[in-house]
């Protein structure tokens, strides 16, 4: 089964492919700083792809340049900078499904920084 197609058909939402987490025991200021630094890093990479290719190629598994670029475009996109309402809705829906199935415990705190 194509899980991406299943997700999109079932929810009509973007597919949550990954995420960045921060320890909730850290002070709020540190959580916010981590969020800002990571956002700036992704924004820089999106605006300057040529400057990041060397690093990506060095750490990519054996794959053609074309396949590598397809992976980058799949995983690094506008949702990487700002989830927006649809992105947040997709993640919350995924967590709701996981909670209903007993995969993850009930979330007690705000999910997003």
Helix proportion: 55-70%
Averaged pLDDT: 89
Class inferred from helices and paired strands: mainly alpha
State the domain count. Answer: 2
Q: Detail the poorly predicted runs.
A: none
Radius of gyration: 16 Å
Number of helices: 6
Layout of secondary structure:
Blueprint: H1 3-11, H2 28-47, H3 49-59, H4 65-75, H5 78-81, H6 84-100
Helix pairs in contact: 2-3
Architecture overview:
Helices cover 64% and strands 0% of the residues. It has helices at residues 3-11, 28-47, 49-59, 65-75, 78-81, 84-100. It is globular and about 40 Å long.
Short description:
The protein is mainly α and about 110 residues long. The protein contains six helices and no strands. It folds into two domains: about 25-80, no CATH class; about 85-113, no CATH class.
Structure characteristics:
113 residues, mainly alpha, 2 domains
